[in-house]
Design a protein that fits this description.
Blueprint lengths: L5 E6 L6 H6 L7 E5 L6 H7 L3 E4 L5 H11 L6 E6 L2 E2 L2 H13 L4 E10 L2 E2 L7 E8 L4 E5 L2 E5 L5 E3 L4 E3 L5 H20 L11 H4 L2 H12 L5 H12 L6 H27 L2
Parallel strand pairs: 1-2, 1-4, 2-3, 6-11, 6-12
Antiparallel strand pairs: 4-8, 5-12, 6-7, 6-8, 9-10
């Protein structure tokens, strides 16, 4: 018997992206939309597909995901958190079902396959893991920077191998810059709480891959000329040049984002 799970999708004005996400989970018999009061056709598209729609004012990603976990009565005990610009794969569905059957862990990090202009950024984007799949009572989320991390783990944290597909540029260049300006402000604020004394360097040696990534990110906060270093790291050290021109453009965009963070820190200091 197949082990089923519910799917949660966070939305806000996602009429251009949502249908593709919904098409990738037609097999799911419990799709829940947590909408941040969209003003376009997002909710209508979701309801037409048979999804249940709940609305909640957006504060941050962690709060929105915890709202779903706390307030919605799901059909299944396990949930997978998606965003509207992300697509599920059949291989990931099979792996999730197996994880439920074994129940070795109560929550799982899941890799994202980053897609830009139809191309998989195998090298320049790398593999980013987030906790997206868990048993309802076994985990929660906490906000970190502009994203979220897992917390209150009751039965450990596992890692899935199969990725979901993230079409992160689905709303175009203007929306990417607008969104990342906001992200930069949140990251600049988060940096104020990071010090070298609080960075666990031992995690670089014996930590898990996602722990090493988090330590490296904390260290990057203190590196001078961050935008230039970011481009060099992604394009040269991470072999981003193997992703061709799309990879080059992505690395430039990531460098610009780092410059946004630097400028937001300068602005914050000037306004003190």
């Amino acid at each position: 018997m197949e082990n089923k799970f519910s799917v949660i999708i966070l939305t806000f004005n996602e009429e251009a992206s949502l249908q593709g996400c919904l098409d990738s989970i037609k097999w799911c018999d419990d799709i829940v939309i947590i909408d941040s009061f969209s003003t376009d056709a997002t909710c209508a598209i979701a309801e037409k597909a048979g999804a249940r729609v709940f609305q909640n004012k957006f504060s941050n990603f962690a709060q929105q995901r915890n709202f779903a976990n706390d307030e919605v009565k799901f059909k299944h005990n396990w949930v997978f958190h998606l965003d509207a610009d992300e697509h599920f794969t059949n291989a990931l569905k099979v792996e999730c079902s197996k994880a439920i059957a074994v129940y070795q862990f109560g929550a799982f990090l899941v890799p994202a396959k980053e897609i830009l202009w139809g191309k998989w950024l195998k090298y320049s984007a790398g593999t980013v893991f987030q906790m997206r799949f868990h048993k309802l009572a076994d985990a929660r989320f906490e906000q970190y920077g502009h994203g979220q991390r897992e917390c209150d783990l009751k039965k450990g944290l596992g890692k899935l191998k199969q990725p979901y597909e993230h079409y992160f540029f689905s709303k175009g260049l203007n929306q990417w810059f607008i969104k990342h300006l906001k992200y930069a402000e949140e990251e600049a604020e988060n940096e104020k709480n990071v010090s070298f004394n609080g960075i666990l360097f031992r995690k670089l040696i014996n930590g898990k891959s996602h722990e090493k990534r988090r330590v490296l990110k904390a260290i990057s906060y203190k590196i001078p000329c961050r935008p230039i270093f970011k481009f060099f790291y992604l394009y040269v050290l991470k072999l981003g040049f193997l992703d061709g021109m799309v990879g080059f453009r992505f690395c430039v965009m990531k460098s610009i984002y780092e410059q946004f963070i630097v400028l937001k820190k300068v602005e914050s200091n000037l306004n003190k």
